Amino acid sequence: MTHAMYELPKAELHLHIEGTLEPEMVFALAERNGIEVPFESVDDLRSRLEFTDLQSFLDVYFASSVVLREEQDFYDLAAAYLAKAHGQGLRHVEMFFDPQAHTARGVAIDTVIDGLKRALDDAATEFGITGGLILCFLRDLPVESAFATLEAVASRALAGDIIGVGLDSTEVGYPPELFEQVYARARDLGLHCVAHAGEEGGPEFVEGSLDALKCERIDHGIRSLQSPALVERLRREQVPLTVCPLSTVRLRGVDTMAEHPLPRMLEAGLLVTVNSDDPSYFGGYIGDNYRAVQDTFGFSDEAMAALAMNSVQASFAPAARKAELRTQIAEWVAGRAA
Ligand code: ADE
Ligand code: ZN
What we know:
Oligomer: single chain
CATH superfamily: Metal-dependent hydrolases
Structural class: alpha/beta
Shape: globular
Bound molecules: adenine, zinc ion
CATH architecture: Alpha-Beta Barrel
Radius of gyration: 19 Å
């Protein structure tokens, strides 16, 4: 029997598609594309998935991503994620991708988008999964590179092939204010705005993402708890936070899941969602993250359903789709009580 947390319908709002690259696929694509990777074997790569901080993870993540070259590679990557997450209750996904990690190697940005979008379209047909793509800028690259990347997708943004922009990679040393003009342009193109903030950086990264970048959601945001004034603002404005429990443990933001601040964030009245971030690196997909939260904190099925309801509320899905998903979650709760 599958676990109840795999059956609970949910949206995923913080998922890097490059972070779903499983070691077996790294080697399969390396062979298909004739590319050398700096790992000896699947087991060697797996043995390197112990991290001390965000940077130690990013080094392996970018080293593995070099195997992605062709449209079919991006399709296969996203199709594998969508099939797996479908089996864990995924109904809607707003998928991050890092185009600069690929264009820097000579891959055309349209190749990346075409492959990912084709997989999303097929998952809509096959599984009824809805969603879209969020283009993330690598914050440790020059702002000019982010601008050029955004301009390269301007027509596709207007066509709806991309629904938003985000900001990721190394946080400390790269404050959100650097990207104020890039985000202003993204808004002009009709794109939603989110950013990683408060993962390793302090509360000022969250404040800057809200004030300078006008972000609608904050990715991670766990270090907001260091500032009572910011917590009060996040509560009052009901700013969604895309929390990634297994990620934060694996990147040593906390020592153990029991110490994760998620319960305190809920008690403070924050709009918390549960997400997987980079599931092939952090030991679990979306349903596994829900499961870890329930197992660790002893949350009831109703409390877990409330987290799934938050994921729907915080999503950029149209109102009619949100209503459908809320009904599905309510039906799941009713089925559990029966
Ligand atoms: N890129 C992929 N995962 C990330 C994370 N958790 N933080 C920053 N950049 C990332
Ligand atoms: Zn992330």
